[in-house]
Write a structure and sequence with these properties.
Layout (H helix, E strand, L loop, with lengths): L2 H25 L6 H8 L3 H7 L3 H5 L1 H14 L6 H17 L2 H13 L1 H25 L5 H24 L6 H15 L26 H12 L1
Length: 227
């Protein structure tokens, strides 16, 4: 699909999502019908069901698109798998920060409906599992506890910063998340800026790694330097 075609197909979906969230916020999730959403968005009922399976799918439509985007992003070439996971998290945050009013409206609706809150928990776990699976595939021999631990840490940091954006009236720039993720890399012992800089090609280097660094990451960095 070309960029133009993708944009034209995404535009009607975005209109339906915006219309649905406005109705949910104004009159309640359970009190809003599919017919009302379709009418407000200017689409037919059949078009709605072609785009979404139900009302709850409208609320989480962005997450489905984002998960697909992250799979594509992580499938690409990345020099540092740990940093790639952090960048994937930034992509998600930047999406919601681009339209904070819409994101806050969605957040309010989800908080008010128990079934939506439960689905949100499952959705968050899908991001965490995606990061976990990517790290294990990218770092053969990585301790599963290190993979799931870092994935959970990045996800938790992302959600904490995102909640600051969603619960307040002010914008929270992406730089806030980046700083927090950089700190996570240092705490986990996989900060790429901690490596030796400026060494000549024929230098003998004695490498010192933090005790907290996963063994698989130590091996990856050594292979990278020796190749």
């Amino acid at each position: 699909m070309t960029d133009t075609a993708a944009a034209s197909s995404a535009a009607p979906r975005a209109a339906v999502v915006a219309a649905a969230l406005e109705l949910f916020a104004r009159q309640g999730f359970d009190q809003t019908s599919v017919e009302q959403i379709a009418q407000a968005a200017g689409v037919s009922r059949s078009t709605f069901f072609r785009q979404f399976g139900g009302k709850d799918d409208v609320v989480f439509a962005d997450h489905e698109l984002l998960l697909d985007r992250l799979r594509e992003f992580l499938a690409g070439e990345h020099a540092d798998p740990w940093k790639a996971v952090c960048e994937a998290s930034v992509l998600v945050y930047a999406h919601f920060a681009a339209d904070p009013d819409l994101a806050r409206r969605r957040y309010t609706v989800v908080r008010q409906v128990p079934a939506l809150r439960e689905r949100e928990i499952v959705t968050v776990f899908r991001y965490e599992r995606l990061f976990d699976e990517y790290l294990r595939a990218s770092l053969p021999g990585l301790d599963p506890l290190d993979a799931v631990g870092f994935s959970a840490l990045v996800t938790a940091i992302h959600n904490h910063v995102l909640r600051q954006l969603l619960r307040g009236p002010k914008r929270v720039p992406v730089s806030v998340l980046r700083r927090a993720l950089d700190d996570a890399l240092r705490r986990f012992g996989v900060d790429p800026d901690g490596e030796a800089r400026g060494a000549a090609d024929d230098d003998l280097i004695v490498a010192v790694f933090p005790r907290t660094m996963p063994k698989a990451e130590v091996a990856r960095r050594l292979r990278e330097r020796l190749d």
